[in-house]
Each structure stands twice: as structure tokens, then as C-alpha cells.
Amino acid sequence: MRLSPADIRQQQFSERMFRGFDRDEVDRFLDQIAEDYESVIKENALLKEQLAAFEERSRSTAELEKNLRDTLVTTQKLTDEMKASAKREAELILREAQLAGEKTVEDSRAEEARIQSDVKQLKRTRRQLIEDLKATIAQYQRIVVSELGGIEDGDDEPA
């Protein structure tokens, strides 16, 4: 059982017949012990309050540190996800550009083939027209020669 300062102050001693203590001296000593003991109890209570406050601050600091760590981890994950997403998007854009480029090249080649086919067709048509024109000229030439041949024979009028 712990003694309180009041217990110390109220402590009574039995007296011996011939060899006793000076009562006033014992009372003063007990009062001094009680005051010191009371001071130690108050200091102990104050230290306990300070310890509780420091423990609370320590818990708050630890919680804040944990929150900061969690935030950093979350931020790092988010950053990594954003980088990966941007990379995937860039790859997709690049692939789409490559496909568009390939389609453009393919369309250009098809257009070139169509133009070359048209040029060949126009050359054939030109040759055919030249052949037809030559044939027409040759026919007119034969007609003119035959008509002129009749005029030379004395026939003045064309047929």
C-alpha cells in the first residue's frame, strides 16, 4: 500500500519511557517528508501528462508519416500508370500513323497503276486513231486518185 502525504503527517509513534524522540523534531521531519513526497507525486503526475502528450504526438507523427508514405506510394503507382498509359497511347498513335501511311502508299500505288493503265489505254486509242486516220486518208487518196484519173482521161466532171 502506498503512503500519501496525509498518511505521513498523521503517523503516530509510540513513546518509550526513557528513551523517546523529541516530538517536535519528529513532527517537523515528517512534515518535510510529506512535503517532499507530495512534490514527487505532483512531479510524477506532470511527467505522466507530458509522457501522454509526447506519446500522442508520436502517434500523430507516426500516422502522418504513414500517410505520407502511402501518398508517395500511391503517387508513384499513379505516375507509373500514367507513364505506361502514355507509352501505350504513343504506341497506338504510332501504329495508327504507320497503318495510315501504309494505306496512303497502297492507295498511291493503286492510283499509279490506274493512271498507267489509263495511259496505256490512251496510247492504244491514239494508235488506233492514227491507224484509222491513215486508213481514211488512204481511202480518200484512192478516191482522189480515181477521180483525178477520170479527169485526166477527159472527163471533166467528177462522179
Short structural description:
By secondary structure, this protein is mainly alpha-helical.
Strand content: under 5%
The biggest beta sheet reads:
none
Shape annotation: rod-shaped
Uncertain residue segments: none
Query: What's the end-to-end separation, in Å?
Result: 162 Å
Number of helical regions: 2
Derived structural class: mainly alpha
Indicate the mean pLDDT.
88
The number of distinct β-strands equals 0
Helical percentage = over 70%
Radius of gyration: 62 Å
For the record, the count of structural domains works out to: 1
Listing every helix as H and every strand as E from the N terminus to the C terminus, the arrangement reads HH
Entry keywords:
single chain, 159 residues, 0% strand, mainly alpha
How does this model look, in words?
- By secondary structure, the protein is mainly alpha-helical.
- It has one domain.
- Helix content is 86%, strand content 0%.
- The protein has two helices and no strands.
- The longest helix has 130 residues.
- The chain is rod-shaped.
- The N and C termini lie far apart (162 Å).
- The mean pLDDT is 88.
Would you spell out the secondary-structure blueprint of this structure?
Blueprint: H1 5-10, H2 23-152
